[in-house]
Amino acid sequence: MWENPLKKPHTKRQRLAIACLVLGLLYATTYIPQRVITTSPSDVSRIHVFDGQSGYEVSLSERRDIDSIMRNLNDITFQKGKPSFGYMGYSYRVTLYDEDGDELDEFIINSETTLRYHGFFHTAKSGNIDYDTLDKWMAQFKTHYDE
């Protein structure tokens, strides 16, 4: 049987190279800046904030507080950075809960421009985290607790 000399059979090596390239490109798309926190404010009934520097913790259940922090976080676009595995210490660990008390999401806020989420650091590219409000809430709690 006569074979077309222009048509070359694909080798296993070529198929493996193509598969690796496709997987690499798919992984690279995770580094495109995007919104990281997408939980709707109406789904959140309580926000638990743990201060990693002092050990104090506070639960926020006022609707205006929840709406304020969730709108702020939902509006920020983040750039995924290096893996955060093995890093110790943080400013605030934030856990979101629904009406049934089930955990919706958890992330760590390190500064007004950095958070840790799903094992990676993320840097704010549009807007900043309202870090001052978290500091204010924690300071009010510390003052009340220490009295």
Short description:
The chain has 147 residues and is of the alpha+beta class. Helices cover 31% and strands 29% of the residues.
Written overview of the protein:
This protein has 147 residues and is an alpha+beta fold. It has 3 helices and 8 strands, in the order H-E-E-E-H-E-E-E-E-E-H. The mean pLDDT is 88.
CATH class group: Mainly Beta
Low-confidence segments, given as residue ranges, are none
Number of domains: 1
Rg computed from alpha carbons, rounded to a whole number of angstroms: 22 Å
The overall average pLDDT, rounded, is 88
In quaternary terms, these chains amount to single chain
Shape: elongated
Treating each run of at least 4 consecutive H or I residues as one helix, how many helices?
A: 3
> Biggest sheet: strands, sense, closure?
8 strands, antiparallel
In order across it, which strands form the biggest sheet? Answer: 1-4-8-7-6-5-2-3
User: Could you give the distance between the termini?
Assistant: 93 Å
Strand content: 25-35%
**How many individual β-strands?**
8
CATH-level-2 architecture: Sandwich
Question: How much helix is in the residues?
Answer: 25-40%
**What sequence of helices (H) and strands (E) makes up the elements?**
HEEEHEEEEEH
What are the key terms here?
8-stranded antiparallel beta sheet; alpha+beta; 29% strand; Immunoglobulin-like; 3 helices
